[in-house]
């Protein structure tokens, strides 16, 4: 494959993607605080102080769905990356990430449309994109057998740091 220094932009991009996008859903505690502060699901607190039990339940349900989606998507996502390669995987993950972040951005304006919970769907999409990004991130170290252990460890640490 060549020397690692010749492919350093690829390695940096790979590690940056893992750090920025793969484990967002697992950083739930600070994300939860931001969502409460921004008033997500505050409309459920009719006449009550924010945050109320209904708001907390809805936020926790969205997190439960999203964190469960990571486990559900793991096998199909791994198969997809193995079959079609990391390029196709990262493109799918990128599209899912853009859709999910756009959805979260529009939640305050749109709210629940016809009973559809856009926030929960966006969070699920984000967690699926993160899982695919992580799987794609683990393919790059195998291009550099001499540094594979170091790159796998770096990928694992950056996934943990992305939470």
Automatic annotation (TrEMBL):
Q: Where are the transmembrane segments?
A: 7-29, 62-81, 88-107, 119-144
How does this protein sit in the membrane?
Multi-pass membrane protein
Q: InterPro entries this protein is in? A: SLC43A_AATransporter
- Entry keyword annotation includes Nuclease: no
Location(s) in or outside the cell? Membrane
The terms describing its cellular component in GO are: membrane
Alphabetical UniProt keywords: Membrane, Transmembrane, Transmembrane helix, Transport
Q: Which family does it belong to?
A: Belongs to the SLC43A transporter (TC 2.A.1.44) family.
Q: What name appears for this protein in its UniProt entry?
A: Major facilitator superfamily (MFS) profile domain-containing protein
Q: Which organism is it from?
A: Emiliania huxleyi (Coccolithophore)
